[in-house]
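FORM 12-B: Structure-to-Sequence Request
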């Protein structure tokens, strides 16, 4: 069975923190969004190749659960996986952890739709991509 994969690592900088000394929610979103881009190539689905074929995924919905604060100087790691493959969309989940303590700090679930930018409409996912992503589906859950 496919496993969740490491998609991103970073450090919390002082300018990422709010007046309470915790990483501000805008930076959680920043790191999670960056990890989402990497997740595609990690499973072998390069976004550049999709663009060359005349389509690319776009985020249609995102939900973030903030579970534990991170502070300046702490390291973070994000793991992710695709959890649902639809006809025109996929769902992927990302989990942010403190890299040293492994405390689970945030979870993001995103739905991305396959989009034709020339026609400005969603499109059916090509079969080869459906097969590639289907082989990488991980079980959803808290982790």
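FORM 12-B RESPONSE
SEQUENCE OUT:
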């Amino acid at each position: 069975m496919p496993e969740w994969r490491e998609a991103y690592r970073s450090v919390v900088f002082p300018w990422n923190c709010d007046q309470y000394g915790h990483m501000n929610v805008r930076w959680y979103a920043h790191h999670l969004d960056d990890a989402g881009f990497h997740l595609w190539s990690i499973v072998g689905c390069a976004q550049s190749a999709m663009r060359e074929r005349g389509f690319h995924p776009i985020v249609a919905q995102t939900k973030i659960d903030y579970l534990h604060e991170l502070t300046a100087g702490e390291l973070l790691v994000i793991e992710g996986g695709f959890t649902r493959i639809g006809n025109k969309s996929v769902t992927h989940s990302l989990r942010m952890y403190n890299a040293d303590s492994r405390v689970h700090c945030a979870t993001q679930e995103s739905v991305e739709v396959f989009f034709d930018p020339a026609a400005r409409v969603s499109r059916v996912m090509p079969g080869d991509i459906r097969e590639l992503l289907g082989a990488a589906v991980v079980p959803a859950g808290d982790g």
